[in-house]
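input
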Amino acid sequence: MSRADHMDVAAYALGVLDEHDTQRFEEHLATCWACAAELETMVPVVGMLSDIDGETMAAVEQTQTDPALLDRTLGAVRAHRRRSRFRQLLATAAAVVVFGGLTAIGFVSIAEDSAPEVVAEPTATAPVERPTVTASSDPNDPNLGGPVAVEGEKTNVTDQTTGVQATFFVASKQFGTSVNFTLARLPGPRACRLVVVRKNNTSEVISTWSVPGTGYGTNANSEALTLSATTSTRKTEIKQFQVQSVDASGVASPLVTVPM
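output
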């Protein structure tokens, strides 16, 4: 802000600035404590000057020839000035309160902007237990006891040739059929896939995966493999599921077949 803006306090107080300069000075006054303090000291003086108008000057001239009128005029002027000064003090106090309040709001806003962001920490919730498979009396059940979904019809199969064990849970859905299955005694490395075979002798591959060298549910890796898949085929239309091993040339051979 230029020095001229600081020198406009008296002109603003006397009301001699034009509309444009008045608006410009008021914008400056909102951020300048020095000009605000100077303006506050000038309010009483401006109020006293505003009391001296043409009628007062004419009355003073008339009292030069009438001493009694002089006394009455001086008394009336003193009383009027006391009332005006009181009103000016109230106005000044109000202005200071408003200006101080705006400044306080500004300080609060700055403090809030600079305050570190508080991030709510998540509250602890009760753990959700995953459904598990309990031991079964089925001689074909590998009794893995792993986190296998229990929804749907359960079937346990152990292939007599490959030794691969499978536990299947098959459930009917609006979209078709969901399958959750666990495989054990599955050696690797190899690539595998799950095929759904329909009663009309058509088939569809619904899942593929790879088996590491340690396999799943083996001596090298005791952890069984748990997977899930879906098919648009209705459960009533399914003849069987078959887990197949696929060699590098793309030829598939069955590892375990799960009838429906």
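quick obs: The mean pLDDT is 74.
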